[in-house]
């Protein structure tokens, strides 16, 4: 296997000093699974704002834009096989990343672009509406795969999503050819899981719900699923492994009483998870419509 067989990935999200959210989760997961990673922070902050006061260190829009231009012109840019975006500091950054993805696609039409539209949760949007709109209007149309949680998907399509049939219809209408919807509606009591929809698949990967989870699970899942796809794994196996890793990492962090994921101690759960995940095939919306 050559040094870069797993593929170079550009990750673009927040950087925290302490903790495992945003780029800290994605970089660790991708490097552990053998990828070369280029990491561009969108903001730098001491820790996830959920822990209390956390001062945002920011870049000007023009500096961020200039750094994107440097990346586009980099002599090594031909190495890049995938881009993963997550948390953005403002709407202009989302537009700059759309420019990056478009420029890379001109040279490499099969570039994988994974858009994790980090914008909100059960309580509603936690980024400014202009940022959420820029993700929806500039990035989602470019995504090979989007990984919203159920509430983000509901905002993106402008409709409440109370069951998995509604989630699948919404995922199909949004546009990307592959959708991984997190915090889907569980079929198992006391469960949660991920719903994956592509032209060929409608799958639900379920496991037990754990109280008081640390942050960063969505960031970790998107990176792990991307890694498995890049390595050429079949979608169903990629979903099962990525879901099992996230669940196992979460369970181990909570067992330790940690308020953050403890990825350095749990790297074996990223590479070879042992946790069981309940995989179910759902009726694909296209099949339902055929009657
Ligand atoms: N409380 C929890 N217990 C067990 N697994 C969880 C829990 N919260 C999240 N997960 C797992 O992590 C995945 C991603 O988490 P989610 O909170 O939906 O992402 P995001 O951080 O993008 O909002 C979920 O689909 C589920 O598999
Ligand atoms: C700065 C910042 N705020 C909020 C979030 C959202 O965190 P969560 O999805 O765990 O709620 C993230 C996730 O990457 C983040 O980096």
UniProtKB/TrEMBL annotation:
Domain (Pyridoxamine kinase/Phosphomethylpyrimidine kinase) ranges: 81-259
GO biological process terms, semicolon-separated: pyridoxal 5'-phosphate salvage
GO terms, molecular function: ATP binding; pyridoxal kinase activity
Keywords associated with the record: ATP-binding, Kinase, Nucleotide-binding, Transferase
Domain of life: Bacteria
Record bears the keyword Hydrolase: no
Main enzyme class: transferase
Listed Pfam families: Phos_pyr_kin (PF08543)
Keyword Ribosomal protein assigned: no
GO cellular component: cytosol
Its EC number(s): 2.7.1.35
Name used for this protein in its record: pyridoxal kinase
Organism the protein comes from: Rhizobium altiplani
Organism classification: Bacteria, Pseudomonadati, Pseudomonadota, Alphaproteobacteria, Hyphomicrobiales
């Amino acid at each position: 296997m050559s040094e870069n067989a797993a593929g170079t990935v550009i990750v673009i999200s927040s950087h925290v000093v302490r903790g495992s959210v945003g780029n800290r989760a994605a970089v660790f997961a991708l490097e552990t699974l053998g990828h070369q990673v280029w990491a561009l922070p969108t903001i730098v902050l001491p820790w996830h704002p959920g822990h209390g006061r956390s001062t945002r260190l920011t870049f000007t829009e023009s500096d961020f834009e200039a750094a994107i231009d440097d990346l586009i012109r980099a002599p090594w840019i031909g190495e890049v096989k995938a881009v993963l975006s997550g948390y953005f500091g403002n709407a202009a950054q989302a537009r700059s990343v759309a420019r990056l993805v478009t420029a890379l696609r001109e040279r490499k039409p099969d570039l994988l672009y994974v858009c994790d539209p980090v914008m909100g949760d059960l309580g509603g949007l936690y980024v400014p509406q202009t940022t959420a709109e820029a993700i929806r209007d500039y990035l989602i149309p470019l995504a090979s795969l989007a990984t919203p949680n159920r509430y983000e998907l509901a905002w993106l399509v402008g409709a409440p999503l109370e069951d998995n049939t509604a989630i699948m219809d919404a995922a199909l209408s949004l546009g990307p050819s592959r959708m991984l919807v997190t915090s889907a509606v569980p079929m198992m009591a006391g469960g949660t899981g991920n719903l994956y929809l592509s032209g060929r698949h409608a799958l639900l990967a379920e496991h037990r719900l754990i109280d008081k989870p640390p942050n960063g699970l969505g960031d970790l899942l998107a990176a792990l699923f991307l890694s498995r796809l890049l390595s050429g794994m079949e979608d169903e196996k990629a979903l099962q492994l990525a879901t099992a890793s996230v669940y196992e990492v979460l369970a181990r962090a909570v067992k330790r009483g940690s308020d953050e994921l403890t990825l350095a101690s749990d790297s074996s759960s990223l590479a070879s998870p042992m946790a069981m995940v309940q995989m179910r095939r759902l009726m694909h919306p296209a099949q339902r419509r055929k009657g």
